[in-house]
């Protein structure tokens, strides 16, 4: 009996050892990073030395947004931006001011593009509230039906669509910070990630932002056609379907990009050097007592995408180990109905967290409280950088001038506040 009880209730030492072991394994195989020493807190000579190293080097801040409908993520970003403004004392602060890299898939990729594309004044084109209003209004318009199915289908039409009017001739090079936006390329039969880091290196990897958004949102399971697109120099051709098929939760890809990109992120040696905010979607509740029926291809695709996002979340959480509580936060909605109001209500609910070897449990904090606590960490890192001359992030400069004219950007900005939205 005693041995059985010991097995059922592992000691804290066993839990700690398990976290360390799985942190090494997940970090090596998930993030492609081989040096196991950087993931063990006992590697430095003393805990004090470890604290000094991390406090002086700083942390890289990552924002990741799932390929969900974008409404819950948008509401979370509105809450986060409002908290950052209040805690920093800067009423003009934007989400992009407090992150070093943004990754987004599907509607999450559109949100990342809206929040991180440079405007005519050098600031982001959209605030979080403006981006959410854009998505929410066109979500209601799409409810009456459109030729291209899905949340963003109607505004991604290639001729005169809203996002073309919003982004104009802006390309990946016109983003304020590094961005990663995935799709699936039918031409090569493999995932493709649009990356600012690649775009500034070669025209062959630079694409119009409007087409990047169309590519990551092309929901083949919902009947959307593949997006035929070319790079700005015409050399790279892609036949894209949505990022949700290839990478519904881009958090792992974002972490891998940072840990293996020493040119732009020289201080990131392990997950303890990261601050990661991962925003998921809202799972629709199952109707009680409803008889079983054959699932459509679209339903199966959404189930597979949701399961993949959860697997990535659990793997990333395990890779962070004991740092999961301070360096990684996941916002995921459960039992949520669609719509902005429901998304805001989800922020007042407690989410579900994965626990190593113990399934899932309710979080002690609400989703909104998690965001507020993490905002304090983001501001703390911002303040540290203002006091420390050593750079934490070195963003590659674009070697060619921006292609978007100031008049085009002026049109973008006015589009946001116009009644036509």
């Amino acid at each position: 009996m005693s041995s059985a009880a010991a097995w059922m209730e592992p000691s804290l030492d066993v839990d700690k050892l398990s976290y360390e072991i799985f942190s090494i394994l997940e970090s090596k195989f998930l993030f492609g990073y081989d040096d196991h020493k950087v993931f063990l807190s006992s590697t430095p000579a003393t805990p004090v030395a470890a604290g000094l190293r991390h406090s002086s080097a700083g942390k890289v801040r990552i924002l990741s947004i799932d390929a969900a409908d974008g409404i819950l993520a948008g509401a979370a970003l509105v809450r986060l931006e409002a908290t950052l403004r209040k805690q920093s004392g800067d009423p003009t602060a934007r989400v992009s001011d407090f992150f070093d890299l943004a990754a987004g898939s599907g509607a999450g990729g559109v949100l990342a593009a809206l929040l991180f594309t440079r405007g005519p004044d050098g600031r982001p084109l959209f605030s979080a509230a403006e981006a959410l209003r854009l998505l929410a209004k066109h979500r209601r318009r799409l409810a009456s039906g459109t030729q291209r199915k899905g949340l963003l289908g109607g505004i991604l039409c290639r001729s005169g669509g809203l996002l073309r009017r919003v982004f104009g001739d802006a390309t990946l090079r016109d983003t304020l910070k590094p961005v990663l936006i995935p799709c699936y390329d039918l031409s090569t039969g493999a995932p493709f990630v649009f990356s600012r880091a690649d775009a500034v290196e070669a025209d062959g990897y630079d694409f119009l932002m409007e087409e990047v958004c169309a590519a990551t949102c092309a929901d083949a399971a919902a009947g959307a056609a593949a997006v035929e697109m070319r790079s700005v120099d015409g050399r790279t051709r892609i036949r894209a379907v949505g990022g949700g098929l290839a990478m519904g939760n881009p958090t792992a890809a974002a972490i891998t990009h940072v840990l293996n990109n020493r040119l732009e992120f020289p201080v990131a040696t392990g997950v303890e050097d990261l601050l990661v905010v991962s925003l998921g979607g809202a799972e629709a509740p199952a109707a009680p007592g409803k008889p079983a029926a054959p699932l459509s291809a679209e339903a199966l695709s959404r189930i597979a995408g949701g399961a993949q996002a959860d697997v990535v979340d659990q793997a990333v959480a395990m890779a962070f180990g004991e740092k999961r509580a301070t360096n990684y936060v996941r916002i995921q909605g459960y039992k949520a109905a669609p719509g902005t109001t429901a998304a805001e209500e989800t922020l007042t609910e407690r989410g579900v967290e994965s626990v190593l070897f113990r399934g899932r449990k309710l979080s002690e904090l609400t989703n909104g409280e998690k965001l507020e606590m993490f905002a304090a960490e983001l501001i703390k890192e911002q303040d540290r950088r203002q006091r420390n001359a050593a750079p934490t992030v070195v963003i590659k400069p674009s070697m060619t001038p921006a292609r978007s004219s100031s008049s085009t950007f002026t049109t973008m900005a006015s589009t946001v506040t116009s009644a036509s939205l």
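The mean pLDDT is 77. The first strand starts at residue 60 and ends at 65.
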